[in-house]
Amino acid sequence: MLRVSCPTDVLELGTSFYAAKVLLAAVELGVFEALADGPLPARRLHTECGLHPRTARDFLDVLVSLGLLERSDILQPQPVYALTPVAEAGLVRGRPEYVGDFLTLADRRSYPLWGHLTDTLRTGEPGPGLDDRDLFDAVYADPKQASIYPAAMSSLSAPAIVALAEVFPWADQRTVCDVGASRGALLVHLTRRFPQLEGLGFDLPDVAPMFAEYVEQAGVGERVRFVPGDFFADQLPSADVLVMGHILHDWNLETKRMLLDKAHKALRPDGTLVIYETLIDDERRSNTFGLLMSLHMALRTRGGFDYTAADARSWLLDAGFRDVRVQHLVGAHSALIATA
């Protein structure tokens, strides 16, 4: 992200939501899906996405300037637009690193919520619309949220999941349990990549139908099964590896410690806990996205916050874990890997 070094940078940072909204609008309008099969002339792309001629040129050329689209010579009668490699990887549905569903959730829910940041900074209270129900009870009680939330969480984690598959010795493992599995994206990716693995997805009972549909479509239903439960009331399933991705940051410190204690009890001897998050750097200076995510949790929850690797290491050691190490994954994401 932009780190300011002059007054012009300050101006650009203060209006960076302009660019963010262009990206979010492009996802909503289907620009990247329209170009998934190859380049299109400008007028054809306008028609495919329902763009008005007055704004279409500037809109698409902002995406060019951001590195999301490529464009042929502007002097041609009708320029041709195409996806850049980064858009091809991250913004076309079905690709392993697709992040579009999370951006859709960000547009619909997070963008309005951040308009209340000043109030939250003054009061410490989350944004409007949060009642006293558990965060996920509220999510699944709302049909609109329930229909998009699991896909959005999978989308947020997609690049980290791809990276995690390459940096941990999964070939030496037999069983993996994803705690808070949502629709099962991690387990699908791992079991496709490592045929000997069997996966357990632990999540609230409301998630079961979405999980079953997703893993069956992926063709791994025989090696991946759903375990319904509530980690406040139930013990975690036993496995060689437990994974918590974007789980701990939802909760206050007491709950974080409780979940780590339960993970330690559930793991087999010498088993491994893998935690991946947008970990804040220990100096709290460089991982801007991690710091922003922590503010986001302040807006969305009553106690959630993101944390540094040093914070988590102390909690893990207190819970009885050993050999704690940090592994960078991709972008703002890193993993904590600890032995029970």
Automatic annotation (TrEMBL):
PANTHER family: O-METHYLTRANSFERASE CICE, PUTATIVE (AFU_ORTHOLOGUE AFUA_4G14580)-RELATED. GO terms for molecular function: O-methyltransferase activity; protein dimerization activity. It comes from Streptacidiphilus pinicola. InterPro entries: COMT-like, COMT_C, COMT_dimerisation, SAM-dependent_MTases_sf, WH-like_DNA-bd_sf, WH_DNA-bd_sf. One of its GO terms (biological process) is methylation. This is Methyltransferase. Residues 114-322 form the O-methyltransferase C-terminal domain. The active site is at 249 (proton acceptor). It comes from the Bacteria. Residues 12-89 form the O-methyltransferase dimerisation domain.
